[in-house]
Design goal:
This protein is an alpha+beta fold. It is built from 18 helices and 16 strands. The strands form four sheets. Strands 3-2-1-5-4 form a five-stranded antiparallel β-sheet, with helices on one face. α1 packs antiparallel against α10, α13 packs antiparallel against α14 and α14 packs antiparallel against α15. It starts with 5 loop residues before the first helix and ends in an 8-residue tail after the last strand.
């Protein structure tokens, strides 16, 4: 026998531990990457919602400012009166009105519309321009933050924007407030308050991963951070509820007055993890793996040293040196126990040899041969029962179950009559298969299907066990975990017991050859002895037309069909 060195175990364990370490760390890295991706997605969606809320808040603020300025104008009698005269009077008449009002005012103070607008500009930093338009005189006057004003006639483009209500310009958006004469409630003109749209850019930059679109309901863009969208397509998609499909993104929508806010985050960018974080996870994973490898290597080297000491000691004992002693570490594990037992064995063996125990062994061997000739199946059965009860008392129920199954098989051989019921035969077969279920745990399943009315059918005993044994010797696929054996009982011209499996099966030519050998009882004795024996017994008891036949199973495997007829001629 080849003496194998401990390096074989060392390399085997090293590769196993390395594979486990790689799988575990890879799984952890993937888990943390997925968790980080989900966290980034949640954070990005939250930022998108917050950006939409910020844009809505800015629109609400500007809308409120426009409303406050409009109300303040009506609360300021001199400024409102000045604005009405400005929009309805000719320039010289308007100037005369201002002069007369100034002279009539005892405080010699005149506050006109220019003063009112300058106060508004100072109070509200987001206010960009104010435009007065006189409906009667068709005249536009624009006021800027630097105190300047520009008067011009109303053009067609301005009037068109006024009709549609879309007063959006490149750098601003506006609110229109009509000005009425309080005494007659007639509309004399309107005041257009323009606010900076640049504020939306600062909002978008604060939430840099998402994009922001603000547009007027007439289809004019106030702000588009990507500069790549067609507002008309967005308006149409928003109306049809297909905006997410159009943009390929997670979308937040809102509306304040005539302005719509769309904040969106492209799905391909939503869960994107920065490269630096991915690199960090990979580097940490490699570092942990390297440390784990160092630990595994050190541990296995220590284990290999201890195994080498044991192997060296065994080699010296094989050479006849019984004075060798293996030093035991203080780990208290199985290797220490083996070393201690080995040392004790050497001490005792040396003592026995010195007492000429070899001669005694020869005598004992002779006596043992005599005793062994007296052992019979009853002794084996009783011994198995004693061992089973000892295993149960020691708490090892699994071993107890295995011994019980084996004991049932022995008992059936030594105690049962030659003819038993089909229920008994199936019971013994199940107990036999249970032994293999313990051996091939989680790799093998067995099932037995028999109608209740067939259970009392008489049959010669032990016709199924050799068939099942043949499957476990030749058919089971040890590398697979879906092995099964199914036993079913059917009634035809007599009875059929079908044993089918999903094992390695046989070629069609081999099946045909086996069936010819079974039919003519010419099967070679060294091949499938159990099946040939069962076939001969069935034919001898129930007739030549009965026995065993093999078939290929669909999907792979083999079907073994056992045919018998209890009521037929020849039943014992």
């Amino acid at each position: 026998m080849e003496i194998k060195g401990s390096k074989q175990l060392y390399h085997k364990l090293f590769f196993i531990y390395t594979a486990i370490l790689v799988c575990a760390i890879s799984a952890l890295v993937i888990f943390f990457l997925n968790s980080t991706r989900n966290r980034f997605l949640e954070q990005s969606l939250s930022y998108t919602e917050m950006m939409s809320e910020s844009a809505v808040s800015y629109l609400e603020d500007t809308s409120d400012i426009a409303e406050y300025i409009h109300e303040d104008l009506y609360n300021s009698g001199m400024e409102l009166n000045d604005a009405l005269h400005y929009m309805t009077d000719e320039p010289d008449v308007y100037l005369q009105h201002r002069l007369d009002t100034y002279i009539a005012n005892k405080t010699r103070e005149y506050k006109g519309i220019e003063h009112f607008f300058q106060d508004a500009f100072q109070a509200y930093g987001g206010l960009n321009r104010i435009t007065l338009f006189s409906y009667g005189r068709d005249e536009i006057t624009e006021y800027t933050r630097d105190g300047k004003s520009y008067r011009r006639a109303g053009d067609a483009e301005f009037k068109k924007c006024l009709e549609t209500g879309c007063l959006v310009e490149e750098d601003s958006f506006a609110y229109l407030k009509e000005i009425r004469d309080p005494s007659t409630m007639q509309v004399k003109g309107c005041m257009i308050l323009r606010f900076k749209s640049k504020k939306f850019e600062s909002i978008r930059q604060y939430y840099s991963r998402a994009e922001l679109i603000v547009y007027h309901e007439a289809g004019t863009a106030v702000y588009d951070s990507s500069q790549e969208n067609e507002i008309s397509a967005i308006v149409e998609a928003e109306g049809q509820g297909t905006l997410e499909d159009l943009l390929g993104a997670y979308v937040e929508q809102a509306q304040r007055g005539e302005y719509h806010i769309v904040s969106y985050l492209e799905k391909k960018r939503a869960a994107a993890i920065p490269l630096s974080i991915v690199v960090m996870f990979v580097v940490v994973g490699i570092a942990v793996m390297a440390l784990g490898q160092l630990f595994v290597r050190y541990h296995l080297q220590q284990l290999a040293k201890r195994l080498n000491r044991i192997l060296d000691g065994m080699t010296k004992v094989m050479d006849g040196d019984l004075d060798i002693r293996i030093p035991t570490d203080k780990n208290g594990d199985e290797l220490d126990v083996i070393a201690q037992y080995f040392n004790e064995m050497c001490v005792r063996l040396d003592g026995h040899i010195k007492k000429q125990y070899l001669a005694e062994i020869e005598q004992k061997n002779a006596e043992m041969d005599a005793l062994q000739s007296q052992i019979n199946p009853h002794f084996l059965y009783n011994t198995l029962e004693a061992v089973r009860m000892k295993a149960i008392c020691n708490g090892d129920r699994e071993v107890g179950k295995m011994l019980y199954s084996l004991a049932v098989t022995f008992r059936a051989q030594i105690k049962e009559a030659d003819i038993i019921t089909l229920a008994q035969e199936l019971h013994y077969c199940k107990k036999y298969m249970e032994l293999f279920e313990f051996r091939y745990q989680n790799q093998f399943q067995a099932s037995v299907e028999c109608p209740e009315e067939y259970l009392k059918t008489p049959i010669i005993k032990f016709v199924l066990q050799p068939v099942i044994e043949n499957y476990f010797i030749h058919g089971i696929r040890l590398k697979e975990r879906d092995n099964f054996v199914r036993i079913t009982v059917e009634k035809d011209d007599g009875y059929r017991i079908i044993v089918e499996d999903n094992g390695r099966g046989m070629p069609k030519e081999a099946i045909a050859k086996k069936n010819r050998e079974l039919e003519h009882e010419t099967m070679e004795k060294h091949s499938s002895i159990g099946i040939a024996n069962v076939n001969r017994r069935l034919k001898a008891v129930y007739g030549k037309e009965y026995g065993i036949r093999l078939e290929a199973r669909e999907g792979g495997g083999l079907r073994v069909i056992l045919r018998f007829k209890p009521d037929g001629e020849g039943v014992v």
